Fold:
Amino acid sequence: MDQYLAKLILKFFHYKAPFLLLALGTAIITVAFVSLTVLFLIWLERKISAKIQSRMGPMLNGPRFMAQISMWLGGIFQTLWDALKLLLKEQVTPQNADKIVFWSAPVVVFTACLMTYVVIPFGPGLVVKDLNLGLLYILAVSTFSVISILMAGWGSNNKYSLLGGFRSAAQIISYEVPLIFSLLGVMILAGSLKLSEIVLAQGKVWFIIPQFLGFLIYFICSIAELNRPPFDIPEAESELVAGFHTEYSGMGFAMFFLSEFANMFVISALITTLFLGGWLLPFGLKLPSNLSFLGITIPYFNLFGSVLIFLIKTYLVILFFMWVRWTYPRPRPDQLMTFSWKILLPLSFLNLIGTSLGVIIWKI
Amino acid sequence: MIKTEEFLINMGPQHPSTHGVLRLILKLEGEKVIKATPVIGYLHRSLEKMAENRTYHQYIPLTDRLDYVTSMAGNFAYVLAVEKLLDIQIPQRAEFIRVIMLEYNRIASHLLWYGTLALDLGATTPFIYAFREREKILDLFEATCGNRLTYNYYRLGGVSFDLPENFIEYSKKFLKLLKEKMPDYEDLLTSNIIFLGRTKDKGIISSEEALNYGLTGPNLRASGIKWDIRRGEPFSIYPQLDFEIPTGNKGDIWDRYYLRLEEIRQSIKIIEQCLEKLPSGKHKINLPLKVKPKKGEIYSRIESSRGEMGFYIISDGSLKPYRVKIRAPSFSNLSIISKLLEGEKVADIVAILGSLDIILPEIDR
Amino acid sequence: MNLLEILKLLKENFPQEKFIEDSNNSEAVYVEENNLYSLVKFIKENQALCFDYLIFITAIDYKDYFELVYYFYSYSKNHRLALKVKLPLSNLQIKSISNLYATADWNEREIYDLFGIKFLNHPDLRRILMPEDWEGYPLRKNYTYQNLIIKPD
Structure:
């Protein structure tokens, strides 16, 4: 018996352990990447908003010996201290809250957001798991955040939270429809749901040119999907205090906050992948596989360059999101719904029909 | 069958958009407001009772605490009423300084209102823009009287300090800057499609309603009634000045918004004229600390940035007033709120409430 | 119109009313409490007077009686009028004018709150500034409270 068990363990380690380790390693890298990105994004948002509003934004922060460095770097450690503060804060649970639902909501929202990172292709072959149904997977997983917002709204047992939860459910469900329709055009053009194949299909021309309408619809819908201002009606500060996360403090609040920014990165990455040619250079240009510069050869330049291009594009999209956020006032919930059902949905239908016709004519 | 219930929600006294400590008890049906009951008095200090216990000079600082955004107006209205009771004339220079300060404060107040309305509608940037310029006005006040919020600047018989040395120069520079910045404010909101959607045809106050509820100031003018105390019942040096009274025609939120921006322009015009005409001389006549007006009553009013700010003072010939009644513009302006909110959406509550430009300390007194 | 002309018009329409002029206030006349409602209705609806704006209502505690002051203004005719009513301590109530002027609603509530004068036919006579369970009426001259300090002259 013992021998058999030992053999089994040996066999397991021999065959499965590398795979497990790899999976674990990827997971850790992903989480670390997401956390760092989010910390950077929050700082970026604060700096951008400050620039738009003719302010300085965070400058001096942290202990005295670090303050000067922080000043030179434009207060880049601000979010680090913010996160630390949120971690150390007391977790307050409202007395009449549904505790299980209340505390599982932030976990659900953060998990759902992490899961979307799995299929994002950062470069050729640089993807955690290149699923065949990558696009469908992302759409399915990102919808998960509605559940968590409803859970948070219901579990808090606060009327403002509940109103926020309702609004969020109504908003995300109505924006999900034109969002998916706007992506159908891309699917038709690429002929695949695999994200890396969609990128490769844009070798000649990026999909933003034939699919400009689809891109616009997707961009607007994703602002609503992200609950970002100007479409932030579920957490409209001036109306609903803080909407669904009114009652959260400490890490619970941080989870919602972080997942919001992590989601923004995912959506921007997705826009880059679907419309802006992913890691590809424009006009079918190709990166050399090794770059020689002043006698120094950089190996795998192809790979690094691709990631760099991808990140630059993604951050440009993010900047656009931020620009929109700090400029516009917020529409009313019913105006938002009207806009979705009466304008965006017909337009996305039109886009779908136009794309299909175009493809047929092209083939003839 | 699913039973639906009305949703009772307490908006305030601690809420980001009730502009102070107003509490609205909202009865909601989904997002629709069935009934809104305002509850006020969280800031009640009984300033009217306190007046009965102070000499006429001692009460001036308390009038700052009425409308703290336009505290020059509180000062001005009170001082004017007491001076009418005492029947004294003040130096011309003091009159001009008073008007300059009131108009500066009107600009500051309207800028703050512009910022907070944008904030209520979810746009953060206009708020910062408005505060950037308001800060400069506060600097001017600080240079003149040492305070940035509650100025306590007016005195019986004049103002407490003369203008600082380079006030005129700095003022002209600032007014030029403000005129350059006004198009920025308009760019951000005036014709923005979301802003138009939120404000056009919302919170309409007809002119009959405005009269019935005793609205004054920009809220009344936005409903199409051309009435401004500065013209209708002129006080101080206003008859010598050239300015227009802007009016709206529909009385919706957008009209109230645009009217206030227009009033900022008119105030700039008034200040420029005052700076031109500013006479030299004394800024104050000295009155004894114990002033005793003769027995009598007075109701005197001025146009503050929110409307008619009036003081009804009854003197019994002693050192202290027998009774002081403060006619605060926001008190009447707010009383229309439950009528306006009926049938509106939750999101419109803050827009409508914000557009009325109420300030709680003067409502609660 | 000045006060004399207004008074002349009023006297023609209300012959039973005396309209005693106030020596302290050139804009005010004393009227009987029973006539007040019909008078207010008249001055609001009369074309020549056209008092479309109720500035405020307030009360004054004269220790042995209370006085109510109604300040009116006309936007179109540009004239003011103050109506004063004396209320004896034994009968601190008067008919509400809140169905004529909506402003009167909150003004009357405030007077009820701070002076304890009742307004009959008022739609919603509750305390407005003080808490619901407050005892006493703060603006009365004989009001005392533990934190109230009277300054010496």
